[in-house]
Amino acid sequence: MLNKTPSISQADAAYCRIEEMIVTRELAPGQMISEKRLSEQLGCGRTPLREALQRLKLEGYVEIHASRGILVAPIDVMRQLDLLEVRRSLEDLMVRLGAERASAPEREHLRALARDLQDAAAANDRTAFLRLNRAVHHALSRVSHNEMLASTIAVVHGQSRRFWYSQFEGQGLFEQAARFHGATLEAVAGGNADEASRHAAAFLDFLETLTRNAIERRAAYARS
Q1: What is the CATH number of the domain that holds 50?
Q2: What is the CA radius of gyration of the chain?
Q3: Where would I find the HTH gntR-type domain in this sequence (predicted)?
């Protein structure tokens, strides 16, 4: 069932829940899913569910086939390098604007997110970490106070999050990611644009290393 609050629409709640199911591979890449079954599982009406699925289609999470149903899109490892190239410039702009424009309450919220994310990583609470990671992305884009930037980077963040979540399993990398994010959040909250930029770039270097390692593993498997 959807965990919907009064401040979020049923379509938004469905979107968040299905995205989480795809990112955590509760819905696996390449899996076909029935709209009717998904509606029943989520306790969601057909109209808001279809709104959520159209959004997920636009963001590359699913493919919708009229005769077959809904296909969970595969994870394209090579595409991650393209995503990271785009993300670097957007992320730099986002954290710099946030450091300059965030209000005092927003800065306190960023600091609280940094603490909560590190606590979730230390507890190895994967579900909490995923939800907080999404909240971090949303909060950083929001404090830029640039709606065009926020909407553009949301798609990149979602696809990037899906990939690296699949790479972190069993590797003990959540705490490293939490430290990178925490440092960026603290810098933005402190109004230090250059420091925020450095920490954001370091995190993307970390993600690029994970991506290239995944590509090398795939190539080695193909040769074997």
Answers
A1: 1.10.10.10
A2: 18
A3: 8-75
Contact by Cβ (8 Å): 90, 156: yes
Structure confidence by residue, pLDDT tens digits, 67-116: 788 999 988 888 889 999 999 999 999 999 999 999 999 999 999 999 99
Mark whether 107 and 214 lie in a shared domain: yes
Q: Rounded to whole angstroms, how far apart are CA atoms 219 and 224?
A: 9
Kindly state whether residue 88 falls inside one of the protein's structural domains.
yes
Contacts of 101 (CB under 8 A, 6+ apart): 143, 144, 145
Asked if residue 89 and residue 54 are part of one domain, the reply reads: no
Residues 6+ apart with CB under 8 A from 136: 113, 117, 181, 185
Residue 98: how many CB atoms within 10 A of its CB?
A: 28
CB atoms within 10 A of CB 208: 16
The model's pTM: 0.83
Burial class (CB in 10 A: 0-12, 13-18, 19+), 46: exposed
Helix (H) or strand (E) holding 95: helix 77-101
Indicate whether 39 and 118 sit together in one domain.
no
Q: Which of 72, 92, 117 delimits the end of a domain? A: 72
* 135-149 residue pLDDT tens: 999 999 999 999 999
